[in-house]
Amino acid sequence: MRGEVFWDDDGFYVVSFANTHDPMRALEGEPTIDPRTVGGGRTTYGAITAGLNIKPEMPKPLSSLTIRPELRYDRALNGNHPFNDSRDIDQFTLAVDFVLTF
User: Fold this and answer.
1) Cα 21 from Cα 6, distance rounded (Å)
2) pLDDT at position 89, please?
3) Domain boundaries, the chain
4) What is the average per-residue pLDDT within 78-88?
5) Is the separation of the CB atoms in 34 and 16 below 8 Å?
6) If both were cysteines, with which of 23, 32, 82, 83 could 88 make a disulfide (CB 3.0 to 4.6 Å apart)?
7) Cα angle: 53, vertex 67, 69; to 5 degrees
8) CA distance 75 to 89
């Protein structure tokens, strides 16, 4: 389990880019073109993540395989709606990664 709190008091660090070119335009100081690109505004974020490390019995060379699923819950703690095109106050993310050491 892991918990986090992040305060974006300038509304600068969290943004949802709608177009794949908008991040580079923003870094270059150019305006973004897609009007769906929005920031989260001045928001305090909280998150809780639960994860597992699973090491299944595998034959060599896969014997070092680790499977790491995780479920994350994010929420705007001050009532803003920074998720899902500025419609939601929270979101869930499900992820998994595979680590093979050699």
Assistant:
1) 26
2) 94
3) 2-12+39-99
4) 88
5) no
6) 83
7) 70
8) 6
